[in-house]
């Protein structure tokens, strides 16, 4: 008899494909995983606790650093929560600017995902192609708000900066550019048989499981559940625009891949409409009291971030600082299904599945 | 097979396509005017209102004032002003609240240093950091009347 | 070369042979240096970058600097590693890689060993490198390295078989295992006399199996960066790591040369009126094209999965290569023999 034993393998926290400092302890039988335990917290900075000692304007730069791939949506969820609590009116121009940057951010975020996912699967070039195009968006943001990653752009009651002259035209030019590049992406990757063989049927789960685990975003929609907060509970100005919510059928990595690429197209569609309807004048900052003191009470708002439902729960005691601030981070929630998905998969599929969930560790650990 | 060949075609085409990288250290990276880089401090404008130190989310600004040496004038003038760039996140809030635009952002972003001590910038350093400062300082959060403007 | 090899081995002959080997070693090292440079440039261009351009004019000395860095690096051996095997493995990887180059003919006149079982010698020796990878993976006492070594063993065994069988067709057509005779048999004047068209099935199987033998994308599973960090050489650093890299690139040289010899007509010109160009130029052109093709694939393809790799090897390539042997034999029997 050959004596066999399980191999306990530490994947991470320093590993090329864990997208930061995420760690999974896997038990391997040959190359097959029999048990997987994710370990989180290597990037925990206590954002929620720090926020209890800061006023709401000061918290905004902290939200940038949660999901650093999609800082604009994080900005929005916080200011949206405070505005809902205080019942503030947002000028139309500010709301349009917010919507445009959020959709650009969604495109940028999905591009990062696309590039890194392909890198996980072993193709090097798509990563640089995606970053070339993301760079265009980053440059637009840099021009708009003076930062390339941590924007700190939105404020309670509006936005910090109006669009500089010519900025909207640059966004307008970006849309057809990006549409062309999406065709190139499909040529480069989407038809590649090796790639399809790698992701089709991998990491499959059904709609009930997805709902049980509280998944959201593309991870939920890949199973065919039609739930996009932009449609289900329109916030901002999403009720004014026409767009489709791409859905998958069987809930595997391929469906998630397809949905995310399609979401880029839909975002470009929203951007086109938003730019056409952009108000010619108006303020970018509403009437806001000097010190922002939401009335005592609680509020929970949620919006659709590129990764899923990001929520912000504020408990206020009527002070300038929140009594308690809680973010529902989609990456954290989506990650919970990982141990279930990994059992019985190979080491290679671990990377495919983990990449397919699309986590940002800054957001997982918050 | 078709998909792979298409992919090979894309990469072959990219070989002759214009390159998108910049030769950064040789050619300086030009940032737009709104870029938030290392702050420039103008001591003459400062009224020691302490707003920047209070709004700073990371508490990286420390400042002290002293009575105005000119007995004719009221108020204080700045004595020391330090920003600790180990923890500064360049969030722009200090320039946003400054009523007199005594602190503004510049386009410089190169903060790498061999020692942590180099990252502790005092008033003199920040005053000398006077190139490429931001022209358009949209101080939306500043109180309407702050004094000395 | 040949006269010395056929003479009795005296001290002076041995010295001459040794000097030849040293010269050749430097040629190979030069190739490896610039193959790495070329690879980084080509992949850089394909990824809209410039590639290395800082060290030396056009970055030509980049690889030299890299190798120099590896040489002066601290030589680390993990405490729990199997010291002897750990030290032997890199050498064991390199020796066969260099030895197989002996049988490659470059032109009619320029060759080293004229072995009558040249092809067999190549295949037999190149199999030893697998051993080195498995040993290195095992001796490192690292789980990632072990997984990489295991994958490597499985992969090499599965792909050695179709690789050998795919060239049986070529051997049948030329009637020899001697690589010089195989090239000579492709001398029809035109490029369609080269083996890659009559043996198109064998050629495709050979290319796929060869890329897999080289452990290059899309078959770079033993060192799959995104999964196994660096695979079998995860614990190696400095000089020993350089040896693994070196043998990998020497195999690129070997496979590119072998493909040229077996399927692309060696030193023959593609058309009779181009005969005035020396054979070595044609050889180098074809050789460079194969090397470029390997880099091109690396810039485009994602990595294949282990089970799919095995499936491809045993279920597709092996039957197809067997079919190729059968078809070639049938063709020879029906049309040529009579």
Radius of gyration of chain A: 21 Å
Chain oligomer state: heterotrimer
- Greatest chain-chain interface? A-B, 38 and 31 residues
Number of helices of chain A: 15
Our Rg estimate of chain C from Cα atoms comes to: 21 Å
Distance between the termini of chain C: 39 Å
Regions with little confidence, pLDDT below 50 for 5+ residues of chain A: none
Low-confidence stretches of chain C: none
Average pLDDT of chain C: 83
Structural class of chain C: mainly alpha
Number of strands of chain A: 8
Which structural class is indicated by helix and strand composition of chain A?
A: alpha+beta
Overall body shape of chain A: globular
Strand/helix succession of chain C: HHHHHHHHHHHH
Largest beta-sheet characterization of chain C = none
Show the helix and strand layout.
The complex is a heterotrimer of chains A (366), B (149) and C (338).
Chain A: E1 7-11, E2 23-29, E3 32-39, H1 47-51, H2 56-64, H3 71-86, H4 92-121, H5 125-145, E4 154-155, E5 158-159, H6 167-190, H7 193-199, H8 207-212, H9 218-221, H10 229-232, H11 253-276, E6 297-305, E7 308-316, E8 324-328, H12 330-335, H13 338-342, H14 347-357, H15 361-365
Antiparallel strand pairs in A: 1-2, 2-3, 4-5, 6-7, 7-8
Helix pairs in contact in A: 2-3, 3-4, 4-5, 4-11, 4-14, 5-6, 6-11
Chain B: H1 2-16, E1 39-41, H2 51-55, E2 61-67, E3 76-84, H3 93-97, E4 103-105, E5 120-121, H4 123-128
Antiparallel strand pairs in B: 1-4, 2-3, 3-5
Chain C: H1 2-6, H2 11-46, H3 62-72, H4 83-99, H5 118-139, H6 143-174, H7 179-185, H8 200-213, H9 225-228, H10 238-263, H11 279-300, H12 306-336
Helix pairs in contact in C: 2-10, 2-11, 3-10, 4-5, 4-10, 5-6, 6-7, 6-8, 6-12, 8-12, 10-11
């Amino acid at each position: 008899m050959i004596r066999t034993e399980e191999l306990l393998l530490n994947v991470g926290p320093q590993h090329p494909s864990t997208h930061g400092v995420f760690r999974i302890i896997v038990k391997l039988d040959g190359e097959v995983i029999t048990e997987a335990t994710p370990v989180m917290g290597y990037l925990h900075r206590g954002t929620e606790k720090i926020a209890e000692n800061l006023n709401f304007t000061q918290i905004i730069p902290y939200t940038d650093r949660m999901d650093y791939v999609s800082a604009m949506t994080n900005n929005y969820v916080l200011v949206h929560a405070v505005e809902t609590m205080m019942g503030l009116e947002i000028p139309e121009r500010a709301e349009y600017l917010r919507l445009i940057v959020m959709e650009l951010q969604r495109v940028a975020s999905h591009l990062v995902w696309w590039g890194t996912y392909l890198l996980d699967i072993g193709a090097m070039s798509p990563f640089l192609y995606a970053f070339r195009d993301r760079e265009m968006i980053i440059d637009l943001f840099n021009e708009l708000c003076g930062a390339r990653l941590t924007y700190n752009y939105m404020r309670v009651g509006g936005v910090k900066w109006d669009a500089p002259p010519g900025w909207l035209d640059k966004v307008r030019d970006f849309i057809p550019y990006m549409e062309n590049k999406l065709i190139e992406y499909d040529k480069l990757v989407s038809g590649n048989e090796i790639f399809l063989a790698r992701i089709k049927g991998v990491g499959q789960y059904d709609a009930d499981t997805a709902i049980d685990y509280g998944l959201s975003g593309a991870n939920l929609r890949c199973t065919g559940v039609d739930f996009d907060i932009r449609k289900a509970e329109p916030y901002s100005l999403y009720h004014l625009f026409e767009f489709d919510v791409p859905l998958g059928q069987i809930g595997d990595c391929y469906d998630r891949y397809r949905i995310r690429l399609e979401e880029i197209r839909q975002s470009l569609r929203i951007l086109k409409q938003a730019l056409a309807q952009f108000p010619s004048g108006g303020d970018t900052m509403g009437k806001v009291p000097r010190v922002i003191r939401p009335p005592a009470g609680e509020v929970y708002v949620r919006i659709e971030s590129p990764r899923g439902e990001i929520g912000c729960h504020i408990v206020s005691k009527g002070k300038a600082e929140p009594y308690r601030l809680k973010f529902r981070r989609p990456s954290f929630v989506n990650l919970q299904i990982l141990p279930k998905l990994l059992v019985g998969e190979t080491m290679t599929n671990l990377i495919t599945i983990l990449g397919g969930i699309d986590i940002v560790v800054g957001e997982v650990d918050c | 097979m078709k998909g792979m060949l298409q992919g090979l075609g894309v990469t072959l085409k990219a070989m002759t396509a214009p390159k998108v990288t910049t030769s950064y250290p040789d050619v300086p990276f030009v940032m737009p005017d709104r870029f938030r880089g290392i702050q420039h401090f103008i001591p003459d404008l400062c009224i020691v209102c302490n707003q920047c130190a209070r709004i700073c989310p990371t508490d990286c600004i420390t400042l002290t004032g002293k009575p105005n040496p000119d007995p004719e004038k009221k108020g204080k003038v700045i004595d020391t002003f330090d920003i600790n760039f180990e923890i500064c996140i360049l969030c722009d809030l200090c320039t946003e609240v400054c009523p007199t635009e005594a602190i503004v952002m510049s386009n410089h972003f190169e903060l790498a240093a061999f020692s942590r001590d180099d990252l502790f910038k005092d008033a003199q350093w920040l005053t000398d950091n006077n190139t490429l400062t931001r022209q358009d300082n949209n101080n939306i959060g500043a109180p309407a009347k702050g004094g000395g403007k | 070369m040949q006269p010395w090899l056929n003479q009795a081995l005296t001290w002076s002959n041995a010295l001459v042979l040794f000097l030849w080997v040293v010269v050749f070693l430097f040629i190979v090292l030069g190739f490896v240096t610039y193959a790495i440079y070329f690879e980084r440039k080509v992949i850089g261009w394909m990824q809209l970058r410039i590639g290395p351009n800082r060290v030396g004019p056009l970055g030509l000395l980049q690889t030299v600097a890299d190798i120099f860095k590896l040489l002066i690096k601290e030589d680390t051996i993990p405490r729990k590693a199997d010291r002897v095997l750990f030290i032997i493995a890199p050498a064991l990887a390199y020796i066969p890689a260099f030895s197989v180059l002996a049988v490659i003919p470059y032109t009619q006149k320029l060759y080293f060993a004229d072995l009558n079982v040249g092809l067999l010698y190549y295949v037999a020796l190149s199999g030893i490198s697998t051993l080195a990878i498995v040993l290195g993976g095992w001796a490192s006492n690292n789980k990632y390295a072990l997984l990489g070594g295991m994958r490597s063993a499985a992969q090499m065994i599965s792909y050695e078989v179709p690789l050998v069988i795919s060239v049986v067709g070529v051997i049948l057509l030329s009637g020899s295992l001697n690589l010089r005779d195989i090239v000579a048999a492709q001398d029809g004047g035109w490029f369609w006399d080269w083996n890659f068209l009559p043996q198109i099935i064998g050629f495709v199987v050979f290319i796929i199996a060869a890329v897999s033998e080289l452990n290059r994308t899309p078959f770079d599973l033993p060192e799959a960066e995104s999964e196994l960090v660096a695979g079998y050489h995860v614990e190696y650093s400095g000089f020993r790591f350089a040896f693994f890299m070196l043998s990998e690139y020497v195999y690129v040289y070997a496979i590119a040369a072998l493909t040229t010899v077996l399927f692309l007509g060696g030193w023959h010109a593609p058309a009779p009126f181009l005969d005035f160009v020396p054979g070595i130029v044609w050889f180098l052109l074809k050789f460079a094209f194969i090397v470029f093709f390997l880099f091109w694939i690396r810039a485009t393809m994602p990595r294949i999965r282990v089970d799919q790799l095995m499936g491809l090897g045993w279920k597709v390539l092996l039957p197809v290569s067997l079919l190729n042997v059968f078809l070639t034999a049938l063709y020879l029997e029906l049309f040529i023999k009579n």
